[in-house]
Amino acid sequence: MSKHIRDTFAQCKLEGRPAMITFITAGFPSIEETVPLMLALQKGGVDIIELGMPFSDPIADGPVIQRANTLALENGMNLHKVLELVKLAREKGVKIPIMLMGYYNPIYRFGDKKFVEEAYNAGANGFLLCDLPLEEASHFRSICTSSGMSYIPLVAPSTTNDRLEVLAADADSFIYVVSRMGSTGSTGSLSSNLDELLKRVRSQTGTKPLAVGFGVSTREHFLQIAGIADGVVIGSFLISLINDTPKELREQRVTDYIQEIVGNRPVDISKLVINSEPVHALEGSIEEATNAFMGNGVDKFGEFGGQYIPEILHDCVKELEAAFFAARDDPSFWAEIKSYYPYMGRPSSMHLADRLTEQVGGARIWLKREDLNHTGSHKINNALAQVILAKRMGKTKVIAETGAGQHGVATATAAAKFGLKCTVLMGAEDVRRQALNVFRMKLLGAEVIEVHSGTKTLRDACNEALRTWVTCLHDTHYVLGSATGPHPFPTMVRTFQSVIGREICEEFPKIHPDGKEFPDYVFACIGGGSNCAGTFSHFIPYTQVKLIGVEAAGEGIDTNSHAATLTAGKPGVLHGAKTYILQDSDGQVSETHSISAGLDYPGVGPELASWKASGRATFLYCKDEEALEGFRILSQSEGIIPALESSHAIFKAIEIAKTLPKDKDIVITVSGRGDKDVQHVAELLPKLGPKIGWDLRIDSANQTKC
Ligand SMILES: Cc1ncc(COP(=O)(O)O)c(C=O)c1O
Description:
It contains 30 helices and 23 strands. The chain is an alpha/beta fold. The protein is elongated and about 85 Å long. Its EC number is 4.2.1.20.
């Protein structure tokens, strides 16, 4: 059906005007109103409708569209219902092209080919996917072309000329030009260098129609764009207008608004025709052209990893990739990091937990003490190295996301040490739960910004950090805190954390009574995976060492209250990478729970996903009360209060140690210290304490006993 989009642009050109394109979210403000609103848009003079497929984690969208997504999901919207709406729209007389716009994960979960075919049959004409750039799109794009659908490439002010050329070759109907760096949203004015941008894009894309979006809201904007492009896209402003208008007036208001934008152009719906001829594959092999341009493509961990990011972020990750690989190969970079080892407390100590070993009565248990690092966890290894990298890149500011606050504190610390301005994004719910760490960050001179979107937790802070980064790339580095995110972050974070595993490897034969070369088991807890990747990566070639990662099973993996992503998740795309994700059957990312905020995340680093696939590491899970038991045992047997995150690994390691003979050796990375958790544990004990027989209330009757 997508010849329809081409015909529409051709017709608009014939009439000497740009195509009017509008975005609305399917299921917003209610499922029943979506089709009437589409009809109202058509009546007002809209030429193409972008129908938003709601997603729980819309990284390219500003607050208005984020809220529309949330509301539509609360209304029960999913991809099956989007298709029903498209079908209904066609039945009710929507004749203009309908493009489906959204994010890749729900489609991936639905099944790419099945979804594209069903969308075609329902009457849709094409796709616009915000997080499927050139690097990742070739498979989906070829499904679109073979199913008769258009795939619309997005270009941004940061898109380079050579990239524009390849993207233009991909465009079978038009190209969407994102007018400014940032997320969707109307700011009242258009970007001042829009003319220049359009000229540059045009110089590379030839006669392909260009439609301009992001920030458009008025007739003046429409006229300004009309002079330089072939299509004008309005999204956020329309969503706000619908939101702010009483239900009974919405359709009329929408028609009137569009009429105002298009200059009261008469609209004759009876003359609209649908060209149902499928779009044919473009001449020449796009696949080949794209591959030739990208060389070896993006580094991946088997099928996991990649760069599932909005085009607008492409520049950021490319700059970072180049800087990181140059630094990694430069001995002076490592010399500089090492010069801060005394500041960080490295090398961190490793020793036998003799009382614990005796108590357990099985394998010997050794502790790698990342809790002794400056700031109290392994997070400083990565934060400090990234801040040094940021300085090398000439950045004067850093941003970071944080959940528990440990990474926020580590980044604020490194930023203070190097004189960089630091802003930490933190979900409003986590700000409430982790008040002490918020205060620590502020003491260190960082600004803490509360994120109020979505679930108001770590994943929303990650979304917001990615959105923020694009607006300030020129002077700001994003210090991502775990082995997650788009390439090169997972590789970079693992590289900076791999000091943990390297030190274990070097130290172990020196401190083992028989000089044994390797431990038999190495344990680490997993949130996003930086502690685990850092602990394991050095051991990957030594297959005699069993690597065991421990996830947070919260209230149990058979409940909806856990964060055991590798155990209970499914492959998908989140925060720029293909990996395991906790998600529902519609591909919406699930809410998670863990006793430890640092493990409370619905994704996991892609490298860990690849270790699960290859079987090189084993992933176990540990419930809240079991972690609390691990917390108690280490505190009372060794006098070490571990972080609740680390307590997960401690509990599981003890379980395994019990089953092993005394000549076996287990190393546990104690990723952080538990001071931050003491208050939380005190609050939790009345609920969880009875499950493990732990009661710390002062018993006045026994007070005088010795
Ligand atoms: C002490 C500690 N351990 C582990 C984690 C989990 O993070 P990751 O899986 O990236 O190591 C956190 C996260 O905040 C943490 O603070």
